[in-house]
Write a structure and sequence with these properties.
Layout (H helix, E strand, L loop, with lengths): L1 E6 L2 E3 L5 E9 L4 E9 L6 E6 L5 E3 L7 E6 L4 E6 L8 E9 L4 E3 L3 E5 L2
Parallel strand pairs: 2-11
Antiparallel strand pairs: 1-3, 3-8, 4-5, 4-9, 5-6, 7-8, 9-10, 9-11
Length: 116
């Protein structure tokens, strides 16, 4: 069992920045890839960033150039630095992890609201 806990969400004005954090506990030693997805009411779930154990990163086109994912394996933590935020970025952001054996886990989410 892997448990994921996100933090760092909040209310920010357009053009502002937020940094999300997610720490894994439990069977964290068998985690392969970690990442973030988001979902707003009425919208489909969107994976925005991912970071593999090998150091490869992925970004959705909608956030490329604005968001940066990083990972500290010594702390079992993944981060998402979000810059130049837009109202369309408003959503609940979820941290997820995939184990070496294949199963996925995700956290409870943290709300990000971009509004003036």
């Amino acid at each position: 069992q892997v448990q994921l806990l996100e933090s760092g969400g909040g209310l920010v004005q357009p053009g502002g920045s937020l940094k999300l954090s997610c720490t894994a506990s439990g069977s964290a030693s068998v985690i392969n890839t970690m990442g973030w997805y988001r979902q707003a009411p009425g919208n489909e779930r969107e994976t925005v960033a991912a970071f593999t154990n090998g150091g490869t990163t992925y970004y959705a086109d909608s956030v490329k150039g604005r968001f940066t994912i990083s990972r500290d394996n010594t702390k079992n933590t993944v981060y998402l630095q979000m810059n130049s935020l837009k109202p369309d970025d408003t959503a609940v952001y979820y941290c997820w992890a995939r184990l070496l054996t294949g199963p996925h886990y995700w956290g409870q989410g943290t709300q990000v609201t971009v509004s003036s």
